[in-house]
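Tutorial, part two.
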Amino acid sequence: MPTHAQDATRKKLFNGADLYFPLLERTVPRILTHRYTFISDDWYKDQVDGGKLSAAEMNAVVAVDLLEKAHLAAATSLIRILRWADAVCLMYETKNYPGFAGALRGLIENGGDTVDGLLNIPAALAAYHHRLKEMLAGKMTSGLADCSALEHMLDHYIHAGWAGKKSDPVRAAKANAEYVALIEKVVPSALSLYHRLCAIVHPSNQSVGWLFDFDELGDRRIALTMDDAAKIDAILVEFPSAIGQTFSLTCNCALLTLRVLHKFPLHPKIPELKKVDWSPVPVGRDVEQLLRN
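Running the prediction step on this input gives:
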């Protein structure tokens, strides 16, 4: 359980989005109980090439693979965002300016990664939840379902890495700023803040300039100072809502994915999610409506 001081830090930094913390702290232990079932691509190809799987069986494999990837992406995103948020709070409380910048940078990058991989997943799964149930139950016997567009989003989130120019485009990582740019519509200052944080973390004028205190008489003398708290507060004043907005957006993408996965008999249930009022979140309203249809 967080202490009173930790709660106060969360309220100060996350600007209303601190309400997500109790939900995440109840959700993460539940998702950690799941063991994933992934079928080898080579085995599946051999079975298909050998004509050993019916259309119904192939569709069932596709459905399981898609839903397992969606759960894995949502679960890891929540764990990562919670850890980054804890790191931001810890660096704030210990008045560590470079540490705060590094942790906040990680939180924002994680937000971009999550939006890139999960933004469209909840609504898509909700829209096709009846068909996916039929596939899982082996009742889709005619035709093969094409879930490749959704799988590509999830595969990129799970597998992307720097592998050279000739790598599979689905698994080729983009520049970090490209992921962060995706959250600009919700967090207008995200990219500006991200570039500022990179400059603080990497060797640059800002990474050392924060330690310089120029003499007021203007004789070009400087003193080395360590006023980390003032520098952190300056970031918070300039970007007052970016932390909370990024945190909310990341949580919504992942939590809504888990909410939709309640419709399928594969993953641990999270009762707390059924109590969440998604009406203030446009995509949340859309998802709830799709699940009622």
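The longest helix spans residues 55-93. In part three we will examine how such features are distributed along the chain.
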